[in-house]
Amino acid sequence: MTEVTLMTTSEVADRLRVDSSTIRKWVAKGLLKAVTLPGGHHRFRPEDVEALLADTSKAVAS
């Protein structure tokens, strides 16, 4: 079985240089995929974070 490393909300916020509340808003709007843990906390796959970053970079470059 392959072990998957997931990122916390704070780690994603640091990576994308935004506030943690922005990450939570993006999840609520469906802009960023999240795994929801039983306690309601979110975790993120690094490839989903990088995909959002790439999409954002393309939008800014246009």
From TrEMBL:
Q: Gene3D superfamilies given for it?
A: 1.10.1660.10
Report a single Gene Ontology molecular function. Answer: DNA binding
What's the protein called, per UniProt?
Answer: Helix-turn-helix domain-containing protein
Source organism per UniProt:
Mycobacteroides chelonae (Mycobacterium chelonae)
What NCBIfam families is this protein classified in? excise
The protein's matches in Pfam families, at most eight in alphabetical order, are given as: HTH_17
Read off the InterPro entries from this record: DNA-bd_dom_put_sf, HTH_17, SinI_DNA-bd
User: Where do the Helix-turn-helix domain residues begin and end?
Assistant: 6-55
Q: Which domain of life is it from?
A: Bacteria
